[in-house]
Write a structure and sequence with these properties.
The protein has about 375 residues and is of the alpha/beta class. It folds into three domains: about 110 residues, Conserved hypothetical protein from pyrococcus furiosus pfu- 392566-001, ParB domain (Alpha-Beta Complex), CATH 3.90.1530; about 140 residues, no CATH class; about 50 residues, no CATH class. About 45% of the residues lie in helices and about 10% in strands. The strands form two sheets. A five-stranded mixed sheet has the order 1-5-3-4-2, sandwiched between helices. A hairpin with a 2-residue loop joins strand 7 and strand 8. It is elongated and about 145 Å long. InterPro entries: Chromosome_partition/occlusion, ParB/Sulfiredoxin_sf, ParB_N, RepB_N.
């Protein structure tokens, strides 16, 4: 018996919806043609190294640009004296500028010390680097003295052994440094006319400055002062030049007394010598007694029996009007001493209060020194 074949209907999708037929290449096809190219380990390493070097070079260039910018800013701040660091006291020298403070007791130094001890230093000093690695003091002599006193009294080197200092760029003109020191001190009410006059004398005597005349030096140093104040300073120059070494309290001379005394010296030649001779008899005089002597000579004539000055020997002029000098330094227990010898002048600078020495001992030492020169 034969079996009947059963038929089934199959629905085919329309031709429009049919997927495109796949095509297969005839023959063999290489693997490289059918897959994306693949780099070998060496090529990949070289590419990665190249990319890293390029990124590193860009980063280094950026760092160098930033460093250059910081370096220029540092130089600018240094020239402006705005770089502050703690400088050891034993690295600070005070030879370059003649100070406007006369040696002797400074009653206001105790007030400064008390302020620094309680509140700290509000205004850093100014220093200039030297070629030997040390520093030359430009501004802040009393602040340095205060720190040294605090170090001696406490022995605390960590706190008082170094002082905040603004570091100036090396190479500033000496005249400009003097001006800056003067202008800083002019705002202080306690600086005396005697000290300002002595500074003008020291400035004119300094072999490194171009000005020889202390009266003209006043115009250079005290440009910020008015005409009247410069006139008073010039009057005190006359007093300090004649009597500076014989006065024990020059900073106590009032302005009126100093100007009157200078005028009297111009009128009567023998007054300075007469004052010096009388002051010799007052070894332990007080401020009141010294001022009384000056007032008497400023207001009256020279007594008939007053000793007359001996004629001064002529000092030969230096050829060309220049200031010849000899300078040298030597180490002493108190520090480094700087000696300057010029025509008619010998100066020794040392961090020591020579006024505290017994007068007889000091005279003997000077006499022995002068005897050795003959």
């Amino acid at each position: 018996m034969s079996k009947k074949r059963r038929m089934f209907d199959i629905e085919m999708p329309p031709e429009a919806d049919a997927a495109p037929p796949k095509t297969f290449p005839a023959g063999k096809v290489s693997h490289a043609e059918t897959t994306p190219p693949r780099r070998g380990p060496m090529a990949a390493a070289i590419t990665e190294t190249s990319d890293h070097a390029r990124d590193r070079g860009a980063l280094e260039a950026q760092i160098r640009a930033e460093n250059d910018k910081l370096a220029h800013e540092f130089v600018r701040l240094k020239k402006a004296g705005q770089i502050v660091d703690r400088i050891p006291l034993d690295q600070i020298e005070t030879y370059k500028l003649a100070r406007d403070r006369l040696p002797g007791l400074d009653p206001e130094l105790d007030e400064l010390i008390a302020s620094i001890r309680d509140l700290g230093l509000s205004n850093p000093i100014r220093v200039e680097p030297r070629e030997d690695g040390r520093y030359e003091l430009i501004q802040g002599y009393r602040r340095v003295q205060a720190y040294r006193r605090l170090l001696d009294e406490t022995g605390d080197a960590e706190t008082w052994g170094a002082i905040p200092a603004g570091i100036e760029a090396r190479g500033a003109a000496l005249e400009a440094l003097y001006r800056r020191m003067v202008d800083e001190n002019m705002v202080r009410k306690d600086i005396s006319f005697a000290e300002m006059a002595q500074l003008a004398l020291n400035y004119a005597a300094d072999p490194h400055t171009a000005e020889n005349d202390p009266n003209r030096a006043v115009a250079e140093l005290f440009q910020s002062a008015n005409y009247s104040k410069r006139s008073y300073i010039r009057a005190f120059i006359r007093v300090m030049r004649e009597l500076g070494e014989d006065l024990q309290f020059p900073t106590e001379i009032p302005r009126a007394l100093g100007t009157t005394l200078a005028a009297r010296m111009d009128e009567m030649e023998g007054i300075p010598h007469a004052i010096r001779e009388e002051l010799k008899t007052w070894e332990n005089r007080s401020v009141v007694e010294e001022l009384a002597v000056l007032r008497r000579f400023a207001g009256g004539e020279i007594p008939e029996d007053a000793p007359r000055p001996a004629p001064k020997p002529a000092v030969p002029a230096t050829p060309g009007g220049t200031k010849a000098k000899t300078t040298f330094q030597m180490e002493r227990p108190q520090g480094r001493a700087k000696c300057t010898a010029a025509n008619g002048r010998l100066e020794i600078r040392l961090e020591r209060d020579f006024s505290a020495l017994e007068r007889r001992k000091l005279e003997q030492a000077v006499r022995l020194f002068l005897d050795q020169l003959d």
